[in-house]
Amino acid sequence: MEAVYRREFEAALRMFAQASGKMVALGFEAPVLVGGAAVELYTTSRIATGDFDVSTGRQEVFEQALRDLGFVKPSGPGMATKGWIHPDLMLGFEVVSSTLLDGMADRDRVYLIDLGDDGDARIISVEDMIADRMGQFASGSAPDMLGQASVLWSLHKNADRAYLARRISEETFGDYTIADLERHPL
Questions:
Q1: N or C, fewer C-beta in 10 Å, the chain?
Q2: What is the mean pLDDT of residues 140-168?
């Protein structure tokens, strides 16, 4: 990794790659990192996350790989999480879907990061991540997501504009466009 990330984030990304490698070694498709962790990766920690959301069709295999790496499922008062936490990282991992953006994202655009001895990590494309944030914003349930999408766009102007425009239209039911990203103040 060339960019500089928070220590905890980089350690968690390396553990994600290790868990992915365990799945691939068993003959399963590698999981894909989505959500806030993908945003943090694409913004080089300008926007930080507290969890790693994962898309995989084999949740039980991924969770076993996490357990093998020392992750635990928190329990007790105040611990209402569906995810897993590594005691050294304090960043949660959670499987949030079995298909990448409900099948709307192009799996051929998934970005692969080589983390050396820790293996590879697969990350949703920046275009799909921007579109996802725009969709969450458009739903009315997450007004801050327009800001995240705008920061992502400002850092990745070399993104595939035609694909991004189509994906934003799909995620927002035609209500928003790339122009809305460009009008939003950073």
A1: C
A2: 96
pTM: predicted TM-score of the whole model, two decimal places = 0.93
Q: How far is the CA of 53 from the CAs of 50, 72, 108, in angstroms?
A: 10, 16, 19
Q: How far is CA 16 from CA 64, 137, 164, in A?
A: 12, 27, 26
Length, in residues, of the chain: 186
Secondary structure class of 118 (helix, strand, coil): helix
**Considering Cα of 70, then 107, then 157, then 113, what sign does the dihedral take?**
positive
* All structural domains of the chain with their residue ranges: 7-124, 127-178
Q: What is the mean pLDDT of residues 28-40?
A: 97
Angle in degrees, 0-180, between the axes of helices 35-42 and 7-25, rounded to the nearest 10: 120
pLDDT at 171: 97
Interstrand relation of 32-34 and 120-123 (parallel, antiparallel or unpaired): parallel
Tokens at 168, concatenated: 């934003």
CA dihedral 45, 79, 87, 9 (to 10 degrees): -10
Separation CA 27–CA 41 (nearest Å): 27
C-alpha closest to that of 172 among 118, 127, 116, 133: 133
Single-letter amino acid, residue 74? P
